[in-house]
Amino acid sequence: MPSSDRSLRARLPSLVERFAPCRLADLPTPVTAEPALADAWGLAHLDVKRDDVASPIYGGSKVRALEWLLGAAQHAGRDGVVTLGPYGSHHALTTALFAERVGLRCRLVLFPQPAGDEIATLDAALGDRDVDIRRVRWTAGVPWAWWRARTTALGRQRPFVVPAGATSALGILGAAEGAMEVASAVAAGDLAKPDVVLVPVGSCGTMAGLLLGFGLSDLRVTLVGVRVTPWPVARQGRVRRLVRRAYRLLRAAGEIRPLRALPLEWVGDLVGRGYAHPTPDGSAVVDQVARITDFRAEGTYTAKTLAHAARGGLARRRVLFWNTYSGHDPTVSEAAPLFE
């Protein structure tokens, strides 16, 4: 493998020529061992892939996807981007922050969700920024608002569309490069091989990217996805379709490695009443993580996913948990991105 970070770009230069991805994240992200949680939950071992510290501006796995999508937006000559999500959307916030960093304008369509701290975080972070925020009061109004947001000029032309969750065949290449970081570390002897990679499944992008990246590597692992959004948003068919579409992009760029099928376990009984609705099991995990670790858990993604391990669902297995949520609130940085 050519490099432990962004190895798709090193291997497939024509992919870079076509999409011009930028560098937003500090990669590779670290992996930390959590022996106290492993003991408490009966695991053979627990490591955490710390995408929560992917950037000092704001962390989380969306930063990986936006390297590809914001790069593609600039390469296409657009002045701005548009995306959508709930009122407290981690993805919408991340898109706005990093669009500003690369000099793109941003428009957000936000729709209702249960009350939570993440709504105040988004409002505080974007309140003084030049972001076109369009809040929809009723879910029924989302299709019209989304159509208007996509078709109304932002700058000199229509904005580049960043899909919800940054989830597309192009966006998932970021998570695929993350999987290759892990495979490279295992091959180098810097990381013990996990039996299981445990992943939150919201818009399906991280899960699809990991399935693609590990499928192209020599590392055979089982992926365990915990659904944190309702069906049909999170579903296995969508994951596999994203993988197929992304692999076609890679093949067109000269990829010759076969894509191996990997075992995929799907956990669908921990979402509770739905997205952003706390659950008793999740709340207990938030408290436990806060007491004995130094990474941050929240009730929508990390807690519901780790609740599967906490209830004994992965007993005696070596687990790598992929932490997709930001480990800190947004900060301001004047650093300029480095384009490929």
Tell me what you see in this structure.
With 340 residues, this protein is α/β, with parallel strands linked by helices. The protein folds into two domains: 7-61 and 168-322, Rossmann fold; 63-167, 3-Layer(aba) Sandwich (Rossmann fold), CATH 3.40.50. It has twelve helices and twelve strands. The chain has helices at residues 7-11, 13-19, 35-41, 62-75, 90-101, 117-126, 142-151, 173-187, 205-216, 236-252, 280-292, 302-310, and strands at 22-23, 31-33, 45-49, 80-86, 105-111, 131-135, 160-161, 196-201, 222-227, 264-267, 318-322, 338-339. A six-stranded mixed sheet has the order 2-3-11-8-9-10. Strands 6-5-4-7 form a four-stranded parallel sheet, with helices on both faces. The longest helix is centred in the C-terminal third of the chain and has 17 residues, at 236-252. It is globular and about 55 Å long. The chain starts with 6 loop residues before the first helix and ends with a strand. Mean pLDDT is 94; it is low at 334-338.
